[in-house]
Amino acid sequence: VSTVISESQRQQLEAVSYSSRYALGLFYEAGRGIDVPWAMRYISDHPCLRFIALDSRKRNGECPEVGPSVVVHTTVTFGSKHLDSDPSEVQQLILGHLEELVPSLPKPASSKCHKWRYSQVVRAMPDCPGQMILHTQPLLICGGDGFTHSSFDGCLHSAVSLAEAVKSHL
């Protein structure tokens, strides 16, 4: 029985690791104002919250027909601690911390809490090659931030590496 990937490739792929966190989206009805003086806020010293953005303001695209939305990201420590917790309980914890930091935030019309199990690369593929050819017949290549680093530049590097690998097999 032949395998698609080698033992060495499997070990390299298994060595890649990611941080985990939660993202919470709060959605408001059209016309609802949100009274904060910022579009986004990075928080460096909070045990739960790392980033808050008034998404429509951040994108400079507030629209009277569509209500504003707020996006909240937790810290990696909080995400790891609550990785297997009930999402509704996690949402309540995040909302409690958010209310303490931004008490003027109104109650949303709806919300969505998302566990982001693979948030950002902690340990990338050794030497950050951008991609890995798993098999040549048929051509099977994998890539992404796990082969570089979690940033726009890392994703771009991986995309270029993938394109060059495909091009060399045409």
Nutshell version of this structure?
With 170 residues, the chain is of the alpha+beta class. The chain has 5 helices and 9 strands; from the N terminus they run αββββαβααββββα.
Explain how this protein is built.
This protein has helices at residues 7-15, 55-58, 76-81, 87-101, 152-168, and strands at residues 17-18, 21-27, 40-42, 49-54, 69-74, 110-116, 121-123, 131-136, 139-143. The model has no long low-confidence stretch (mean pLDDT 90). It has 170 residues and is α+β, with helices and mostly antiparallel strands. It has 2 domains: 7-16 and 124-168, no CATH class; 18-122, Polyamine Oxidase, Chain A, domain 2 (Alpha-Beta Complex). It contains 5 helices and 9 strands; from the N terminus they run H-E-E-E-E-H-E-H-H-E-E-E-E-H.
